[in-house]
Amino acid sequence: MNNQANQKLSPNHPLNTEQSELVNKIITFASDHLQRNDYPAVFTIYGEAGTGKSVVLSALFDCIQKLSHEKGTCFSNTHNYFLVNHPELLKVYKQIAGPLKELLKKNYMRPTSFINQMDKKDSSADVVVIDEAHLLLSQPDHYNNFYHNNQLTEIIKRAKIIVLVFDEYQVLRMKSFWTTERLQKITHQYAHKDYHLHHQFRMTAPDSLLNWFNDFTHGYLKPLNKNMWQNYDFRVFTDAEEMRQAIVHRNKEVGLARILSTSGYPSTLDGGKHYIKEGNFKIPWDQYNYTSTPWAEIPNTINEVGSIYTCQGFDLNYAGIIIGPPISQIPHTNQLKVNLDKITDIEMFKKRTDITNPQEKIKYEEKMVMNSLNVLFKRGIKGTYLYAHDPLLRQNLKHLFIEANNK
């Protein structure tokens, strides 16, 4: 299947110099520890959305699997796995594995499946690569048949070399609650190396607009400048239906243009349709995707609204983003606030016994709401369109946009 996600995550996707050197660094790290029988050893790649983390992992795993079929290397006959706790992304990796002889679909798994399979076979892995490690469960979750306390801890028990990518700004649920400190409390118990990716590859927007998005998700509505969207299609709408029509037009032109939204609208996994309504705009949430094709690449999803659960990890050409009821502006300030009582995603705030301070819990919950918006903000390669539910925020966004264009 020749789609955009497959092309980007294909091991044949060209790497830049830094990415190639990083793959070589990890291969050297893994081979050193395998040869010395010095394991478990953990290599962590840090990077925000769009910095090419998954591209590096895909190329790395392909390289390791090729080496596992060669004689005379420390990777010969090794048993290696690629894990991702994201069903839509897992579909893409399995599609990629199909035509490439060194890659087998069975080596791509959800973390719980890997843990259970290793236990069933009374076996362990040599190298485990983990994409989107910020989605690993950090408490038991019976819904996902995970009965241990922490998926990363359990994976490390069952592997020699662990390579993972992590972004604290993509932590979205309490059951997969992580901070960099919590991650390193586990990874730094072992032989380890950390690496930071900084360059944004996904979006063609200037750094100044990316910084504006980051300021927004840190709670501040900063002034706009039209230089922020040179060669990038950034727009603000006061009518959600108008924004939808613009996205439909872009989709007809170049494809992969979709409407996305934060929480704050009716949403239940009951098989029925639940609508997001904003004035004349009335479109249902994304439906559960039973196909092997990622949500954004199914043509009729232009008539649905995507969530963080269907778009995280994926590129869109254009993203039309609805900033829902949980995020509003504080009157007479440039500050934003999170309205936790307006969250409709029941999965977001599952109870944790290890966070007992109520203020600390609220702080983390508010951060996760802004993280979810950060995920949406970082989807659009060619353009990002915004609409805000909160009247004051909607009015001021438009005012800043008009003001910037008139300068």
TrEMBL record:
<dbReference type="InterPro" id="IPR027417">
    <property type="entry name" value="P-loop_NTPase"/>
</dbReference>
<dbReference type="Pfam" id="PF09848">
    <property type="entry name" value="SLFN-g3_helicase"/>
</dbReference>
<protein>
    <recommendedName>
        <fullName>Schlafen group 3-like DNA/RNA helicase domain-containing protein</fullName>
    </recommendedName>
</protein>
<dbReference type="InterPro" id="IPR018647">
    <property type="entry name" value="SLFN_3-like_DNA/RNA_helicase"/>
</dbReference>
<feature type="domain" description="Schlafen group 3-like DNA/RNA helicase">
    <location>
        <begin position="41"/>
        <end position="390"/>
    </location>
</feature>
